[in-house]
Amino acid sequence: MAEARALAAGYLDWLARERRASPHTVEAYGLDLRDFLGFLTGHLGEEPDLAALGALRPADLRAFLAARARDGAGNATRARQLAAIRGFLRYLAKTAGLAPLALANIRGPRTKPPVPRALTPDQAKEVAAHTGSIHQPGHAEHPAEQAARDVALFTLLYGCGLRIAEALALNVRDAPRPGSQAALRVLGKGGKERLVPVLPAVRQAIAEYLALRGDPPPEAPLFRGARGARLDPAVAQRAMRQYRRLAGLPEHATPHALRHSFATHLLGGGADLRAIQELLGHASLSTTQRYTRVDAAALLETWRRAHPRAG
After folding, report:
1. What is the pLDDT of residues 255-302, one digit of tens each?
2. Where is the Tyr recombinase domain (predicted)?
3. 193 has which bridge partners?
4. According to CATH, where is 1.10.150 located in the chain?
């Protein structure tokens, strides 16, 4: 399987560098392709090479999806795995001369997009303001800087609706500060740029964090870890996980929930759906429309709590 693994590694590298896929997507697709190549070894009776991949039929892909279903993989998992395989085979068709496989007739499992789980406005403000107060002893070289960093990061995620990967990709030169440009230029999925307005509270939190760092060069990471490198998303996720457990917040209080909260609270305040789409950097309005389901769910819950006949 050495040849197939090398081809898969080349595809994943291309996804990361050329398509600017998120590290999470690259990791998930890597696991999906590992499952697929492992299945093919048993299905074909030998480790697949480029020729074997070129000889695949739609029935082989359907057999893989059926095997994953028997193993307990849900619809969402199998749909993602099919997407990973489609992308891999199309990549091979373009780069390795593989004959295109007739993929159009292969239907993946139908998945219902999950309703985004937002925090309440009070919970979101609490996370943004206080997560920085929770630290692991001995893990921070500069506790005050780390606390200010976490406050700045989570205030930015909630105040501007950024994905955590977008926030952590920012450099010092990009930082919105008091008196600076009115909008933040963000590089989102697929290399698409968008401008996001920045609230005074976000500017202030970032300014206070940078003041503790002295005068970092413009090309330095805006959010850095204890050793000076760009902050790892896992560190931010761990900080919020620790805080939510100590503060009694729900388990869906994650960095990405702050982005959901940004959109949900804007919609609840009367913002236009198209405007929210632009702020979030969604390619399709249908993705943004999921937040109308959140708002409707919140209204129904309010009715259930308040209406005398709801019980």
Report:
1. 999 999 998 888 888 888 888 888 888 877 777 777 776 665 555 554
2. 114-304
3. 187
4. 2-95
160 token code pair: 């501007």
What's the Cα-to-Cα distance from 217 to each of 18, 26, 174, 186, rounded to whole Å?
27, 30, 11, 19
In which residue ranges of the chain is CATH 1.10.443.10 found? 121-304
Measuring CA to CA, which residue among 68, 11, 3, 75 is closest to residue 36?
A: 68
pLDDT tens digits, one per residue of 95-109 = 988 877 766 556 666
> What is the residue-wise DSSP string for 115-176?
PP-PPPHHHHHHHHHHGGG---TTS-SSHHHHHHHHHHHHHHHHHH---HHHHHT-BGGG--
**What is the CATH code of the structural domain delimited by 2-95?**
1.10.150
Catalytic residue ranges: 163, 189, 256, 259, 282, 291
> Which fold, 121-304?
hpI Integrase; Chain A (1.10.443)
Sign of CA dihedral 156, 24, 170, 15: negative
Contact of 259 with 141, CB cutoff 8 Å:
no
